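Q: What does the assembled structure look like for these inputs?
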Amino acid sequence: MSLQLRHSNGVYSVKRTTRPAFLAQNASRVKTKACAKSALKPVKSECTAFAPATVANLGPGFDWLGCAVEGEGDTVVAKVVPDKKGIFIESIEGDGGRLSLDPAKNCIGVAATETLKLIGEVDCGISLKLHKGLPLGSGMGSSAASAAAAAWAVNGLFGSPVSKELLINAGLESEASVSGYHADNIGPSLLGGFILIKKCKRGSPVELMSLPFSKDNLYFVLVNPKFEAPTAKMRAALKPTVPMASLVNNCQQGGALVAGILTGNVPLIGEALDSDVVVEPARAPLIPGMMLVKAAAKAAGAYGCTISGAGPTAVAIVDDVKVGERVSRAMCDAFRAGGLEVNTAKIVRLNTDGAKFV
Amino acid sequence: MSLQLRHSNGVYSVKRTTRPAFLAQNASRVKTKACAKSALKPVKSECTAFAPATVANLGPGFDWLGCAVEGEGDTVVAKVVPDKKGIFIESIEGDGGRLSLDPAKNCIGVAATETLKLIGEVDCGISLKLHKGLPLGSGMGSSAASAAAAAWAVNGLFGSPVSKELLINAGLESEASVSGYHADNIGPSLLGGFILIKKCKRGSPVELMSLPFSKDNLYFVLVNPKFEAPTAKMRAALKPTVPMASLVNNCQQGGALVAGILTGNVPLIGEALDSDVVVEPARAPLIPGMMLVKAAAKAAGAYGCTISGAGPTAVAIVDDVKVGERVSRAMCDAFRAGGLEVNTAKIVRLNTDGAKFV
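A:
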């Protein structure tokens, strides 16, 4: 089982089909004696990949819009294990011992296994080392960054026969194992920049498009408090139905958000991201101080502030580093006033590279 | 009572405030003897304006996205009536005698009255003649085109002291009197092109932005069947709540629609417009044959097809006139198969001018 890429007018459609024709052109192959089947040989013995943090949901962009940000991320070292088959997790650093070394129960294991399905048969096993740069359950796409780094590192061992767009399928399976079948973290962590998920339903091709942002004056203020906001709990906070008026509001603000990105309008991005009336009001009360943080960010000069991913990290939008510093202090103070300590507070730019070899 | 225009980064915010400072610069004034108050003098005795048809709702763009299209529209002739005050409707053609000549009960009357409120005191009365080029209740923004033409013609009598963006307020009051407080028809009929309504709530400034479309290969196939689809009935067909999954779908498709417009991607515009899962499924069953029309349009090569405005007109998107002709025939046949006669079938481009003097 492998894939087909339809790339029409800027929209990528990624679909599993029969035989990966592109592999023949992109990678060396070893034919086995038994039949005409071929197993792919690695082109290097070790490959290290980094994948960035992401900010998903983005207010009205819930479940369909995310972006990659500079700064921290996760790193995976993939090593060839000759004369073996399968995926092995050698070590994990930076997780406080919380993640499983069982490849079936860890997002790098799932992503690597799914990446091998996309590549086709290979003639070796692969061991993985994960260094987590992102806190777990922070709302900054920690699991997606691990999965993206693993997929890109494993792919790199074989000369990168699979495109980043196609690797989203591997990442999606990994994401599904931890937080649900959503591409708004894994898409930007692999590809970089703002990614609009046009369609993402299991059994259908994933459709996504990159939304180019042309200015250099967009900054994200990310404040991560010491608080657990498990994705499952945050998802359960959402009501199964929403009022029609909320639909109209979120659609129009989602449209304005896309317009803000494509026209390089930072104030518009901030205001639109700030205007979700469905998800944020349901989730913010579960994060102590979040509404105070939001108000403080705007009072300090941010164009808008909302929950990053499923939280607890808060994200504010500014177009000036100095304003960002003031906003960051105000947000930290507000979290503390709400009773939470602050893990990290950062002012970061958009990451436009996504996963990369290091 | 008058207005203030905030124009920040491509977003117009139109708000009623105290005194129209801009008037002093743009128009001649007559000071009365009684006090320092001044009444504006007309600069011409007659002014004729045309305003184009519009396609609002646009699938997931329900209540927040519309565009103006070339071809038919409504025309209003405004004439100065010396030594009188107020708005008078002299005649209406093309409505089959269905519209009221009472200015308080007719959208041109309401729009003209509201336009005068924006201009300030004037020293004459105004009579209006309306020529309707658009069928009533067609879903092509018939009432908005009348209101836009009336507002622009009245404004023109006084040297156009009020900008088109500000005149949206006059149009909104007119629209509210016939179909609700929605700017997705009046906005594009006045301004032309695609207009995103970012905020439109009575008592708050209207916020909107123009979404430039840079290509010339976008065609709308508009097929208007002989059928009444009153806006009130079509609005009543909508449920008060929608499933969360439908919110996500419509937000992502609305975002894709904006991305399609701003990147000049006609297939993407068509597919996104075709993908509403909230409004179209509730309203289409009220228009005989609509689902057949939609299927026929796509089978004939359209990128997507949905209900224009509140219907009954169906709109399909193509990027080639020849395909449009085939799509048009298929849509007409499908309406007839559904039991409806066809009034008009047209293939039109985007109108980028909006209301204009003729």
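Confidence is low (pLDDT under 50) at residues 16-36 of chain B.
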